[in-house]
Design brief:
Blueprint lengths: L4 H4 L4 H4 L1 H8 L4 E3 L5 E2 L8 E3 H4 L1
Antiparallel strand pairs: 1-2, 1-3
Length: about 55
């Protein structure tokens, strides 16, 4: 996947491949400081921050 979730969500990823999206966001460890989306890998977000660091 070349683009971050932040850009892909607006491009119907949930309708086109919901299973792939669920795999990316299950057990999230990172949050995007721009839009608030979460993911289990920082490479999937455009401005990631470790959620444990923010607590």
């Amino acid at each position: 996947m070349g683009k971050s979730l932040c850009k892909l969500v607006g491009k119907k990823i949930l309708k086109e491949n919901p299973a792939a999206y669920i795999d990316l966001v299950s057990k999230p460890k990172f949050v995007c400081l721009n839009c608030g989306r979460v993911a289990n890998s920082k490479k999937n977000l455009c401005n990631p921050e470790n959620m444990k660091k923010l607590r």
